[in-house]
Amino acid sequence: MAANPYRAIGHGKPGKIGCRIHHYEEIGSTQDIAQQLALEGAPHGTVVIAESQTAGRGRLGRDWFSPPGVNLHTTIILKPAIAPGAVAVLGLVAGVALAEAVQAIAPGLPGLKWPNDLWLRGKKAGGILAQLLAGAPLCVLLGIGVNVNLTLQQMPEELRDIATSLLVETGEPCDRVQFAAALFEHLDKWIGQTQHSGFGAIAPLWERYSVLTGKQVTVFDGLVRYTGTVKGIDQNGALLLAGGGNVRRVVAGDVTLERIER
Ligand code: BTN
């Protein structure tokens, strides 16, 4: 088995994200390995990282393109002291951490598209999948995929108009270990804050990166399509959509922007 390049990140500090790091060259999905580890009692902060995934998955049953050696594919086992009803905000909290990690290397570039996408210049560069594990205590498998050093040539043709990477947008390769370390640090900080005082104080930070606020969008919640102007998010992370004289709270769905500015 090749050496784990991420081994230095957590320094084994209990309770910290990265306290244990399981690194794989190729697996199906980091979500599945993390689930197995969580069921075996792995502690909060345990991280699974794969160089490539043969069955990487995204939200809404989509596939997640996970080629070898260029991107970050990670699942973090979280056992946060929060109410089960607050689990939905963990994806947004992770979005803020991700945007901050990107901001440090590409100032002004990161954007967040509700609920869980990292955008760079109008294209998707990363995504977050928060999966609640049934049973007690509360356990969430937080999957994060980021296109880091992926080139346009390596990208499947059908993704080229809608996806991008840090390398494509900055022209500079990025050290994935340093990037993951920064991401985990920010995540630790914001999860700590969420446990302590909820999402309320983090929501304005999320808004700062929002690519949707003020924009005309269509939201599909799986059953119905709603059109309107995005007003922002509320204290519980719901999208606020103004249209037809009222403001609707959307708690889940897929958002399409009417016009994408690049
Ligand atoms: C999305 O935008 O739809 C969420 C994408 C999440 C992808 C990550 S990659 C690491 C983890 N393992 C998976 O199979 N999916 C998540």
> Percent helix among the residues?
10-25%
Please give the alpha-carbon distance between the first and last residues: 42 Å
Beta-strand residue fraction: 25-35%
Could you say what the CATH architecture of the largest domain is? 2-Layer Sandwich
Radius of gyration: 18 Å
Provide the CATH topology of the largest domain.
Answer: BirA Bifunctional Protein, domain 2
Strand order within the widest beta sheet: 1-2-3-7-6-5-4
Ligand list: biotin
Structural class: alpha+beta
Average pLDDT, rounded to a whole number, is 94
> CATH H-level name of the largest domain... which superfamily?
Bira Bifunctional Protein, Domain 2
| Shape call | globular
Biggest sheet character: 7 strands, mixed
Point out poorly predicted stretches. Answer: none
Key words describing this protein structure:
5-stranded antiparallel beta sheet; 2 domains; 7-stranded mixed beta sheet; alpha+beta; SH3 type barrels; globular; binds biotin; 262 residues; BirA Bifunctional Protein, domain 2; single chain
